[in-house]
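Predict the 3D structure for this chain.
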Amino acid sequence: MQDDTSTRDRLVTTAATLFRRKGYHATGLAEILAEAGVPKGSLYHHFPDGKAGLALAAADWTAGFLVRIIDDAFVPAPSYGEGMTHYCMKLAKLFQLSEAANTCPISALLFDGPESDAFRLHANAVFQRLIDAVAGHAQRLGLPEAKARAEAETLLIAVEGAWTLARARRDPAVLRSLPARLLPTG
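Done. Predicted structure below.
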């Protein structure tokens, strides 16, 4: 018998993958359950709100995954510019590994889902979590708080746009080009 944690985790990671590939509406519960290898009762045991609750949990899991990428990029970096560069390179690699047809992992879950304030507010909180992670590293690397927050938000805006353009072109070079576009020259 599977323990509850592994069943819940399988549901969340499977949903995150399928929502990213196909979008919220095009992914059925039966498909998630079959792919995760769990019975229908397990879904409602862990997620009484069904697909909507699962999507919110999948967005949180995805944010945690992206925060780990941020940390992996910025922790060893001696400067914000180098951390940002490492982050963009890691995202380009993720783009290559995840097949360019995939959308932004967060947007696919929360903006393509049901039209609701709960999903919009959750999306804002998830994106803020990413901004906070980058801003924290930027401050640690010497940027004043206001500058760190502005740089972190600019990076998120740029990454979202770059991911979309890379997807359209099926080319991760767009993500790799971000540091040169965002870092001051001189």
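The chain has a mean pLDDT of 88.
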